[in-house]
Design brief:
The chain is built from six helices and five strands; from the N terminus they run βαβαβαβαβαα. By secondary structure, the protein is an alpha/beta fold. A five-stranded parallel β-sheet has the order 2-1-3-4-5, sandwiched between helices. Helix 2 runs parallel beside helix 3.
Length: 136
């Protein structure tokens, strides 16, 4: 089971990711809507992979969250999954230690499949054969 922390203030995005992960069945997903709530949750729990949006409410965006996690010694693989798709933002994410940067500027089934495959990769796990057909 992969413990996935998904941080996004967009409830529709949370619902889609949660439903897709539930259907696959190899994920435990914890949904939060801000960087601050993620830091609080991670002070008491752990995740195998963290997915975060860039633009979130409050004073902390996805890059700031990534920096804060690293300053606290948290090296959990971090995927920035955002509609804010710019070359500069992608470079900044990788400079700050992001595992991956995935654009959801035009969300589609392929985008979700790419995200799920990246989560397996980040967790150092192979996509199980029975799930591979579901995420093609």
């Amino acid at each position: 089971m992969i413990r996935l922390l998904y941080i996004d203030d967009n409830t529709d995005a949370c619902t889609i990711i949660d439903a897709f992960c539930e259907r696959i069945g190899t994920f435990t997903v914890h949904l939060l809507n801000s960087g601050e709530s993620a830091l609080e949750w991670l002070s008491m729990s752990t995740a195998d992979v963290i997915i975060s949006d860039y633009d979130m409410p409050g004073g902390m965006n996805g890059i700031m969250l990534l920096r804060e996690l690293h300053s606290r010694g948290n090296t959990t693989p971090f995927i920035l999954f955002t509609a804010a798709n710019s070359h500069e933002l992608k470079e900044e994410a990788y400079r700050n230690g992001a595992f991956s940067f995935i654009s959801k500027a035009s969300p589609s089934k392929n985008t979700i499949h790419h995200l799920i495959r990246t989560v397996y990769w980040a967790a150092n796990q192979t996509v199980p054969e029975q799930q591979a057909a579901q995420i093609k």
